[in-house]
Amino acid sequence: MTTAVPADTSADAVLRKIRWWLCLFMAGLVFSGVTAIPLESELKLLTRITAALGLTGIGLQTWLVRVLDGLEVTNARYPFIAYGTDWLAFAHVVIAVAFIGPWRDPVRNRWVIEFGMIACVLVAPFALFMGGWRGIPIGWRLIDCSFGIFGFVPLWLCRREILRLEKLRVLGV
User: Fold this and answer.
1) How many other C-beta atoms are found inside a 10 Å radius of the C-beta of residue 42?
2) What is the pTM of this model?
3) 29, 40, 55, 64 — which has fewest CB within 10 A?
4) Residue 172: left if φ>0, alpha if ψ -120 to 50, beta else—which one?
């Protein structure tokens, strides 16, 4: 007598979950990367929005205006400096491409997921230390730290599902 396996525990269903979490993570990487390219126009829009919402009296608006001023001056006099953020964008896209390996064969490429999890954990100490050294307000550094948390969660869920998939494949399910 054979016991039926619930549909949500089949290897195919687990693989779909893994791919969904990977897709979410990869899309986040690409989105956060490409948004590093038009920083000046994005900041102009963001400062207009925060001003329209009446957020001018808080530190956020002051910080955004200061950053925008720095970008405008730098871009006007030294536009080649922005090339660094272009490469930042490129790096995000390249890192996203690395996750195609786990998409294709999650069990064999679990190490990529674990590498990503380690990188996400390292965001917090890096942002806190380097941001402090560069004079970035603590609130902004905490926002930067949140990217590590938001990246870690889908990767952790993905890794959990990969371990389930590995067990299911051993069982032949």
Assistant:
1) 14
2) 0.85
3) 55
4) left
